């Protein structure tokens, strides 16, 4: 069996069942990339925190900030951080430290009353805002606002998706925001975004001003993307049944391209339309193999369709180098 033929998602699900491990539900995520110094990042974090408070309270959820954590470089040329229970004074002090020229990141967590993860999961904050300067791209910050898996359920999910879209519109209006997206998928912090993970990509944050990092329920595009998409982008969106909303931004053009349907019922046909529209600004890579939880990414024809026995812990394929005696953990997947 060739790697590209292997259904790694089915294998992963069946192996989790064999091990007695639950497949986690998807969570709601807002991801975006900006340029700017640490002082700008600290100010933007404060604006977004206030906006998240307003959205949660406006939706009727009882929510409170519970933990704050900042990162900066200390005098010994190492990295320091400060974390603890949230208070207004600690909030001000940490933002002040993050705003220093050597500030490098910030975490802020919210707790939603009467919501806990299932007992099979560790205790964790319900909503997390994380921002960090990219280690290889000075001045470029990567941000995520993530709701814990399963936090917004049933009738709550679609209003929460619209709230995250409003927050995407907010960050899209900031100077030097490069790109952003909202998705409901299985994603954890410090991992590539779903499209990147499925195709084994890691798109540089510096490149997100001209390159999108996948096709998602809502996508923030700026001038570099629009230049690749051409002057008929709005008409093409309309023809594909997608929404095309200008985002007020003082320093450049920005739009939000999104599905017409709510996030809870995003269909494969709409994903296909989003992929078709965004193709000129998308990195297209051949599928090789992905063994992990289900992701809202479209399979290419002729890939990911053959069954792998779940008893195999580490699959090895016909187009990999030959197995040797010092690789006992790997098992060649039978062909056919």
Order of helices and strands: HEHEEHEEEHEHEHHEEHEE
Which descriptor suits the 3D outline?
globular
pLDDT under 50 segments (min length 5)? 118-123
Number of helices: 8
Q: Got a strand count?
A: 12
How much of the sequence lies in strands comes to 15-25%
Overall residue-averaged pLDDT value: 88
Structural class: alpha+beta
Percent helix range: 25-40%
Through-space gap between termini: 7 Å
Identify the strand order in the major beta sheet. 3-2-4-5-6-1-7-8-10-9
Q: What Rg is obtained from the alpha carbons, in whole angstroms? A: 21 Å
> Assembly type of the shown chains?
single chain
Main sheet attributes: strand count, strand direction, barrel closure: 10 strands, antiparallel
Describe the structure.
- The chain is α+β, with helices and mostly antiparallel strands.
- It has 8 helices and 12 strands.
- The strands form 2 sheets. Strands 3-2-4-5-6-1-7-8-10-9 form a 10-stranded antiparallel β-sheet, with helices on both faces. It has a two-stranded parallel ribbon with strand order 11-12.
- Mean pLDDT is 88; it is low at 118-123.
């Amino acid at each position: 069996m060739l790697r590209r033929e292997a259904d790694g998602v089915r294998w992963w699900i069946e192996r989790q069942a064999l091990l007695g491990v639950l497949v986690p539900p998807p969570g709601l995520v807002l991801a975006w990339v900006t340029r700017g110094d640490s002082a700008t990042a600290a100010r933007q974090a404060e604006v977004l925190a206030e906006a998240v408070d307003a959205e949660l309270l406006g939706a009727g959820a009882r929510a409170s900030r519970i933990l704050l954590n900042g990162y900066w470089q200390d005098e010994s040329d190492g990295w320091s951080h400060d974390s603890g229970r949230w208070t207004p004074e600690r909030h001000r002090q940490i933002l002040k430290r993050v705003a220093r020229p050597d500030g490098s990141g910030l975490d802020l967590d919210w707790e939603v009353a009467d919501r806990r993860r299932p007992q099979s999961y560790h205790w964790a904050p319900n909503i997390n805002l994380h921002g960090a300067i990219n280690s290889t791209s000075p001045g470029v910050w990567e941000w995520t606002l993530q709701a814990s898996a399963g936090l917004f359920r049933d009738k709550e999910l679609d209003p929460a998706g619209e709230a995250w879209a409003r927050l995407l519109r907010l960050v899209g209006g900031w100077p030097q925001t490069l790109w952003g997206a909202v998705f409901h998928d299985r994603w954890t912090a410090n991992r590539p975004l779903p499209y990147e993970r499925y195709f084994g990509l890691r798109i540089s944050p510096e490149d997100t001003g001209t390159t999108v990092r996948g096709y998602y329920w809502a996508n923030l595009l700026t001038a570099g993307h629009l230049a690749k998409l051409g002057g008929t982008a709005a008409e093409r969106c309309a023809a594909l049944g997608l929404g095309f909303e200008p985002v007020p931004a003082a320093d450049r053009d920005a739009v939000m391209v999104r599905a017409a349907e709510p996030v809870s019922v995003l269909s494969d046909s709409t994903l296909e339309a989003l992929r078709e529209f965004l193709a000129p600004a998308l990195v297209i890579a051949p599928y090789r193999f992905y063994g992990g939880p289900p992701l809202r990414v479209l399979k290419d024809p002729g890939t990911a369709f053959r069954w792998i026995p779940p008893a195999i812990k580490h699959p090895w394929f016909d187009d990999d180098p030959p197995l040797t005696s010092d690789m006992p953990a790997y098992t060649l997947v039978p062909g056919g």
